Amino acid sequence: MNRILFILAALVALALAIILFLPGLIPVAAFKGRIETQASNALGREVTFGDDLSFRIFPRTAFHVTDLVIANADGFSGDYLARVEEADIGVKLLPLLSDSVEIDRFVLTRPDIRLIRAQDGSVNWNLAQSETEAASQVEDDDNSARELKLGDVRIVDGAARYEDLAAGQSYVAEDIDMTVVLKSLSEPLEVNGEMQFQGEPARVDMVLTTLQDIMNEEPGNLKLDLEVGDAEIGADLSLSMKDGLSYSGPASLSAPDLPAFAALAGTELADAPGFDKLSLKGDVDGGETSVRLQNATINFDEIAAQGAMTLNWAGARPKASGVLSTDKLDLRPYMPPPAENAEGFPEWSEDKMDFASLNNIDADFDISTNAIYINDLEFGESRIKLIVDAGRLTAEIPELSMYGGQGSGRMVVNARGATPSFAGNFDVGAVQAQPFSKDLMKHDNLLGLGSFKLNFTATGASQAAIMRTVDGSGGFDLSDGALKGVNIAGLVRAVGEFSEGFNPAALQRAVAEARGPAQQTDFSEFLSDFSIANGLVSAPTIRLEGPYLSMTGQGTVNLAEQTIDLRLLPKGSTTLEGQEGGRTITIPVRVGGTFSKPTMGVDAETLARTGLQRTLQDVFSRSDDESADGEEGEGEEQDPARSIIEGIIGGQKKPKEQSDDQQQGDSETSARSTEETLINEGLNAIFGKKKAAPAEETKQEEPQQ
């Protein structure tokens, strides 16, 4: 037992002696040249290091060197491919004792690596080719690539720079802590570690099988799991270098911060609405300047799509194209935000609209979608041919579903110049008017089913500027609907109830009763054509037909100021058309106010200025052969509308006994005074103004011109 313990103690002492004293027995300086040669052979590039060389046997046999330099390839700028501040070069002990060196690992501390891709596509990091005199000494007779063996390579606190001279881009990685394993060219190359890439934290886990196949222009396999900032990339690709780089296989990308990811890839996206996030997954097939994604699932901002697409980055701008289908095409992130806390229809915004994102990428897509969202407007199942070319967007819409209707349209946004321009045309039939007017005009007072058409052009960098420059034309034709909030037929019939002269209070009450949430004007047809010039919509013809009512009119709508000025002439009947015993009453109506607060009432201006003679002749149906004194037959019923007008203009009969000039002058003066007073009272009653106070109750005021 004691002998066994003694033997074990002797072995331990011998091991300690080897660990402590053997490094000092080996002539390290004599191995410097051999190590440089062996490293040069392993890397295929000249390797040198400084004179500070040491050797250790524990924990693993290795030489420690400083200022290690791996030479650059011929034809590339810069003195080195890599420069290492300190390096531990692991060697096998038994070959070393037999006076030979076999390297099996590298530990590189604070290396500086310079990778370059030249204009012709050649690279300076191809370590498997004979490019130095040292490498040429170990070439095989058939000039084939040598068996590259790196063993285990560790990079500690390293830095790397990649310059693509062909693309004019460069990338920088710092704080690299990474492990590289390559036992031979015929075995997998494994890379995993962490770094700061372009200032963002990154992690890489990669397996490439095999370098030998890639160098022989045979397919290899790459499995990649990469994280850069918030972005994640995964791939399982078949690689080939025959006739240039090509790859295929499943891949995925998730970039929740798309502008940041684009900047990491060397592309600066314009600071504009949209282009916020991107994720895609599918089967890729690509090369150095393009990639095609099939069986793809794509999520771009709020758009989720499926189909196939191609991305090409060989030109001045990347270009995406493909055929996609989506459940909804949400364009709201690219539109100016709607006004907040607005009552009724919001005012046009003066904020600048930014279409710079149209210069980020060119596109050519055929998109089928179940829904389109443009701010508050919603469209149904549609198909769009979308083209973006150097800042100009064209959307051809051969199939457009809109609020129950079907049609087509075209929209152009040109952001190439300093001020964007717009053009469009839409023609849709069978539109449900109520939900459309609610989303567009922020009210639901229009009911019916009909067609809608619009052609327009405009320029401007804000909503307000666009509305000031709109030119175009259009029209609508609705059927079997109603105007909510007002009963025009009821208003006209209420006027017919006045049988004894003008009654301002009664007329004002009739107007009030004809308006309200429960009131509506039914129609069988409501149509108009219009033109637009500098934001002013002119409607020369407005026509409405309904039960007990027909109406014509004209007017304008100022888009820029959001004001309305329509003059309508409704003709109401007390019976349905064709029935006897009824009466027809016509009274002018004026629609005014703003988009947010429209107004409607009797058009007193038309009554007072232009309607008197026409009303007396046309509305009252006065015969040309009435007696000179204006008396009616005893049995003839007085027309109520005539009573109102006669009340306004002072329609009392003139006394026959007033025959001399003085009496006639006094009568005319009195009639004019009565006429002016009653007209003013009528207008004030319609517009809701109070009568002037008696003279003795008003304060004395300075005379006014």
Radius of gyration: 45 Å
Strand percentage lies at: 35-45%
| Chain-averaged pLDDT | 77
Q: Major sheet, described briefly?
A: 30 strands, mixed
What's the number of extended β-strand segments? 33
Distance between the termini: 137 Å
Could you list the spans in which at least 5 consecutive residues all have pLDDT below 50? 10-25, 129-146, 610-659, 661-665, 667-679, 681-705
Number of helices: 14
The percent range for helix content is: 10-25%
Question: What would the principal axes of the Cα set say about the shape?
Answer: rod-shaped
- Class inferred from helices and paired strands: alpha+beta
Question: What do these coordinates show?
Answer:
- This protein is of the alpha+beta class and 705 residues long.
- The strands form two sheets. It has a 30-stranded mixed beta sheet that branches.
- The protein is rod-shaped.
